[in-house]
Amino acid sequence: MIFYPEGKTKERSFETVNQLKEAMMKNEVLESKVILCDREHNLHVDLGAVRGIIPRVEGAVGIDDGTVRDIALISKVNKNVCFTVLGFQRDIYGNTCAILSRRSVQLMCINEYLSKLKEGDIIDARVTHLEKFGAFIDIGAGINALIPIDMLSVSRISHPSQRLCEGQDIRVVLRKKEEEKLTFSLKELLGTWLENAERFTPGETVTGVIRSIEDYGVFVELAPNLAGLAELREDLFPGQQAAVYVKSIIPSKMKIKLVIVEAFGKEEKPCPLTYFVKENHIDLWQYSPDDSQKMIYTDFSLANAE
Fold first, then answer.
1. Residue 118 dihedral angles phi and psi, to the nearest 5°
2. CA-CA 20 to 30 A from 21: which of 12, 76, 213, 306?
């Protein structure tokens, strides 16, 4: 069974309590938007026929033992969460309300889905928030994992916001599986050097983003997994967009020589991602061409063989 990030499943609204009871009997995984987090940190959702309440301890795996802080619940207001129906009770006004559990869905996700993943497996994820060291993603049922910044692309960036946006749906590959932590990567899905370089031709002038300025030249990103080197110019800065002339492409050295024609405004938002891997699993990803002087690759099969 596959569990998707919260927000990817269609919301359900129920016209009668009996419909909700049927969902409870089937142990259906439902999803709805949180409308309130009360002072006891219980989450409230609108189910149509009745209001649903996710008690604090049912809000997430780890809340009961303190390994997950209450901010994880507070931050869910106005966002979709998944849950199952545990039962029904009357509130202080005599109204029927449904008692829900997000924690139960997360436990199912861990036991039936995430625990079965292997290094090299490719899954859907959603970016939840960005930090300087990496991007946190929802890998299913609101369970978070990390993509370290150096695994977001081959082209180096100073902050994940240069590559991703919060709320963005992406595909990721499991890079490392530990007992209590899953670490994911993005760069292996964004193409090899050759796959990216084949999109450009010497003599063309294209748009790129200046990523770094060194003593020996300016690195200009043409794609997340491809950068070229141009000669130094004054008044340039990282993050600036530039029109660049493609002077030459040298696969054996993984080099693209560029000439900056014009530099203009700062990059406003990350470019849409292009995925080159269509499968749901990869054992080996070789970035460098076969005749390259330097070999760059990721071998996922080694981890699975241990």
1. -120, 155
2. 76
More confident residue, 268 or 23: 23
CA-nearest of 164, 153, 237, 146 to 188 is 153
Q: What share of the chain is helix, strand, coil (3-state, %, to 5)?
A: 15, 40, 45
User: Residue 127's beta-bridge partner residues?
Assistant: 137
Longest dimension (CA), the chain: 76
**Any long-range contacts for 239-242 (C-beta under 8 Å, 24+ apart)?**
239/162, 239/209, 239/210, 239/211, 239/266, 239/267, 240/209, 240/210, 240/264, 240/265, 240/266, 240/267, 241/207, 241/208, 241/209, 241/210, 241/265, 241/266, 241/267, 242/207, 242/208, 242/209, 242/210
Looking at residue 293, what is its pLDDT? 87
Look up tokens 């530039």; give the residue: 242
Strands 255-266 and 226-230: parallel
What distance lies between CA 270 and its chain's CA centroid? 14
Classify strands 284-286 and 226-230 as parallel, antiparallel or unpaired: unpaired
Query: For residue 107, which phi and psi values (nearest 5 degrees)?
Result: -65, -40
Model confidence at 268: pLDDT above 90: no
pLDDT of residue 305: 58
CA distance 91 to 150: 50
Phi-psi map region of 220: left, alpha, beta (phi>0 left; psi -120 to 50 alpha): beta
> Token pair for residue 300?
């996922």
Distance CA(303)–CA(297), nearest Å, equals: 14
